[in-house]
Amino acid sequence: MALKTIKIGTRGSPLAMAQSGWVEQRLARLHPRYTFELVIIKTTGDRIQDRPLQALGGKGLFVKEIEEALLEGRIDLAVHSMKDLPGDLPEGLTVGAVPEREDPRDVFVSADGRSLKEVTPGGRIGTGSLRRKVQLLKYRPDLEVIPLRGNLETRLKKIKKEGLAGVILAAAGMHRLGFGERITEYLGPQIILPAVGQGALALEVREEDREVEELIRAIHHEPTALCTRVERAFLRRLQGGCQVPIAGYACLSEGKLHFQGMVAALDSPLILTERIAGDLKDPEGLGAAAADRLLRKGAREILKGKDGGGID
């Protein structure tokens, strides 16, 4: 007989369901005395599909309603794409576990098999991310960027429907939904630096709920947690109300944390980058230090600007 039913809050998109379903199945195998149930919650980002995310406020659009359900006790656990989480969480909530990260890179899905470098000048590339747009145009300023919204399958269909040369998407989503064979090219950070937390999941719980926190620790992956702590500390230090394209990726190598961050302007070709390395004892300090370096390089002026934008 089950001890308790644990309700897992999730968005209803195919990718969100695949991610939360994976968490549900892992937890059910590890804790057979509990029952786990998915609860679909529609978020602001899901409801409004006819406007760019940055026009709606950027971060938090895919998590606010889920976090409200968690705080009100309607669910016991929330599964988010880490990159959807704002830098600061609501009081009373915490990230209780971070499973092992999927591939954090972006990918190019081509209409005809050509790589991004081989696309004909003037080719139309689809992406809903300003982070991707500014870096793509630095790499290939001769291309045209077409804004896209919708779930992953919708974006793939728009390649043919809208006559695009291709689209840029997250590798993690392609893998999790079984579209890996559609990937034409993986884009390393030297071309497009990933969004903060890209490829990682965040399992959010109420701070006082020790029972659920203990259950989910079984699927926690500490190396991923360390890296995403660096990235999120970087994001928190940079946030100042105005949203601009920000990217950040950390990895573990030779016993150290290595981080690369980016802040870009939308009204000029200015892209600021920073690389930093440090030990494992203070991931938040490392992320904050990288942000401070960028602020001194000119990111403060970009963040105070009125050019708008979006973090992803």
Summarize, please:
Helices cover 34% and strands 23% of the residues. It has 312 residues and is an alpha/beta fold. Strand 1 (5-10), helix 1 (14-30) and strand 2 form a beta-alpha-beta unit.
Structure write-up:
The protein has ten helices and 13 strands. The protein is α/β, with parallel strands linked by helices and about 300 residues long. The protein has three domains: about 1-100 and about 200-220, Periplasmic binding protein-like II (D-Maltodextrin-Binding Protein, domain 2, 3-Layer(aba) Sandwich), CATH 3.40.190.10; about 105-185, Periplasmic binding protein-like II (D-Maltodextrin-Binding Protein, domain 2, 3-Layer(aba) Sandwich); about 220-310, Porphobilinogen deaminase, C-terminal domain (Double Stranded RNA Binding Domain, 2-Layer Sandwich), CATH 3.30.160.40. The strands form three sheets. The chain has a five-stranded mixed β-sheet, with helices on both faces. A five-stranded mixed β-sheet has the order 7-6-8-5-9, with helices on both faces. A three-stranded antiparallel β-sheet has the order 11-12-13. The termini are far apart. Residues about 305-310 have low confidence and may be disordered.
SSE succession = EHEHHHEEEEHEHEHEEHHEEEH
Intertermini distance: 44 Å
Low-pLDDT runs: 306-311
Residues in helix, %: 25-40%
Specify the biggest β-sheet: 5 strands, mixed
Percentage of residues in DSSP E strands: 15-25%
* Total domain count: 3
CATH topology of the largest domain: D-Maltodextrin-Binding Protein, domain 2
Rg estimate, integer Å: 19 Å
Query: What is the topology, as strand order, of the major beta sheet?
Result: 2-1-3-10-4
What oligomeric state do the depicted chains represent? single chain
Number of helices: 10
CATH homology superfamily of the largest domain: Periplasmic binding protein-like II
Number of strands: 13
Mean pLDDT: 91
Would you identify the CATH architecture of the largest domain?
A: 3-Layer(aba) Sandwich
CATH class of the largest domain: Alpha Beta
